[in-house]
Amino acid sequence: MHQRTVPGRARRALLTAAATVALVVGPGAAVAQAADNPYERGPAPTLSALQASRGPYAVSQTSVSRLSATGFGGGEIYYPTTTADGTFGAIAISPGFTAYWSSISWLGPRLASHGFVVIGIETNTTADQPASRGTQLLAALDYLTQRSSVRSRIDASRLAVAGHSMGGGGSLEAASDRPSLQAAVPLAPWNTDKSWSELRVPTLIVGGESDTIAAVSSHSIPFYNSIPASAEKSYLELNNASHFFPQSTNTPTAVQMVSWLKRFVDDDTRYTQFICPGPSSTSISDYRSSCPIG
Fold first, then answer.
1. Which range is the signal sequence, renumbered to this chain (predicted)?
2. Is 290 a catalytic residue?
3. Are 121 and 101 in contact (CB under 8 A)?
């Protein structure tokens, strides 16, 4: 367990904001103190707000055709409609083996309504393995930040990945390949590689207690245990949940996923309370965390 310091980009933004205020109001004027975190978005969180079907932001949606995509199979983009809050962090999400984005599409507007740009991808083929899905997630992030119609709404230094089943295994692959990512959220992840000792990206793994396809004893838990103790990590296990829990609205998953992304993509310490010591509910059979501080 360790304390994350304010990243260089935040320090630079704070210095710039302070200098701008000084220039505008002049010496000796009383001004409000600059916000501690320039990436903080939205109101102070509450559990009831996180459990709601939508967050504080209105959301718009646009499609990415397979023909316009490079390195992945197109998909859907969800983004906060407002332009008043500056840029947002972004996340790419992959469906699982044989599945399409529509199988987990509820995640798109749910996450975007809390202040993220989300791209839910279609894979090149539905049989693509985790390593390929990881590469496609990174290609989708590159498209999102460099070529998409919403690129001006995104802070390209604050990116994350997620996915279900082989897509979850793919999110581990992407986080391993691109350590500059701010977060990864594998859902019921499946991968033949059980060791992720090289991973440094803050990672939340969500598993289903009754999963018989990617059993937590041979997938989620070994993945979690292999991530070094020096990295930020959490493991959420859903009571009696099958492998397909992400394919319908799952509030405990949404609460932890939003909290994780807000904490590590937005550096928003207001959400630490939902990560450490963590949730307590009859719908949760196990929860473990390195407990981020601050």
1. 1-34
2. no
3. yes
Whole-number mean pLDDT of the chain?
A: 90
pLDDT higher than 50, residue 34: no
C-alpha to C-alpha distance for 114 and 107, rounded to whole angstroms: 11
User: Of residues 211, 266, 267, 268, which has the active-site annotation?
Assistant: 211
Beta-strand runs (E) in 66-202: 75-80, 88-94, 116-121, 154-164, 183-187
- The domain spans of the chain are 1-38, 61-289
Determine the pLDDT at residue 35.
54
Model confidence at 234: pLDDT above 80: yes
Residue from 105, 165, 176, 259 carrying the catalytic annotation:
165
pLDDT at residue 27 greater than cutoff 90: no
Q: Could you confirm whether 165 is annotated as catalytic?
A: yes
Label residues 50-68 b or e (16+ Cβ within 10 Å = b): beeeebebebeeeebeeee
211 is catalytic: yes
- Is the CATH number 3.30.830.10 carried by domain 61-289? no
